[in-house]
Amino acid sequence: SSSSLPYRRVVLKLSGESFCRSREGGISMAEVEATSKQIKTIVDQGVELAIVCGGGNILRGKQFAAVSEAIKTPTAHYMGMLATCINGLALQDALENAQVPTRLQTAIRMENVAEPFIRRRCLRHLEKKRVVILAAGTGSPFVTTDTAAALRARELEADVVLKATRVDGIYSEDPERNPHAVRYSEISYKDVLQKGLQVMDAQAVHHCMEAKIPILVFNFQREGNMLRAVMGEKVGTLVHA
Ligand code: UDP
């Protein structure tokens, strides 16, 4: 029952990579559907869930701005935010196809396809156990969807930020470069920031630290991990005070 859940309200950050095949770009509905099946397992536990969509599978503002002198950096960031809306729409249909009721709310208005993000309305949906998909990040350029996830977690008073990635957690060094890198099972916010560990952007970690919201970084591709994460089992790396 939901009374035994370690986390009552969860913000799940799905990076763009969970919308496409490994080392590819664009959207793969097969991947989105697989992710949605995992999401259904946690919704079935009775958690209140808000999902912040990344957009890196389509476009990252910083990278795109570097490609040409013609494109202004803020424009590239707005394009990145719109990319997260494309992902959000795909996720919404995949979840509803799996019988999970959803609402899509965006930080940039697009009333023909989604509700605007309104904190109190979002909370109401969560109370009614609708999964709220949050897209367009913060609505402002120069930040990432990690920061959006941290900010939404703060304003929605979430109990945890789950960061779904393709690595098993936070390592002392890049595990793809150094095979001797060790994975932390727990680490403090301060250590993540001081060691400059590349897991979540520093602003996001800072917000979670200020609000004392733990961050769990885990590999969403391992079957059952999302459920384990929500049930408070030891999986990935837990960042806390
Ligand atoms: N973005 C932004 N403001 C926000 C959130 C995102 O400008 O509040 C832009 C930014 O350019 C970013 C892109 O949207 O690169 C896609 O998001 P992100 O890179 O965080 O996606 P992920 O790495 O999770 O796939």
UniProtKB/TrEMBL annotation:
Family (UniProt): Belongs to the UMP kinase family.
What does it catalyze? UMP + ATP = UDP + ADP
Q: Where in the cell is it found?
A: Cytoplasm
The EC number of this protein is 2.7.4.22
Q: Which GO terms describe its molecular function?
A: ATP binding; UMP kinase activity
Which protein are we looking at?
Uridylate kinase
Where does this protein act, in terms of pathway? Pyrimidine metabolism; CTP biosynthesis via de novo pathway; UDP from UMP (UMPK route): step 1/1
Annotated positions binding ATP: 13-16, 56, 60, 165, 171, 174
- In which residues is UMP bound? 55, 138-145
Give the record's free-text account of how this protein's activity is regulated: Inhibited by UTP.
Its biological purpose: Catalyzes the reversible phosphorylation of UMP to UDP.
Species in which this protein is naturally found: Caulifigura coniformis
Q: Which EC class does it fall in?
A: transferase
Q: Which NCBIfam families match?
A: pyrH_bact (TIGR02075)
| A Gene Ontology BP annotation from the UniProt entry | 'de novo' CTP biosynthetic process
- Specify whether Transcription regulation is a keyword of the entry: no
Assembly mode:
Homohexamer.
Source taxon at top rank = Bacteria
GO CC terms in record: cytoplasm
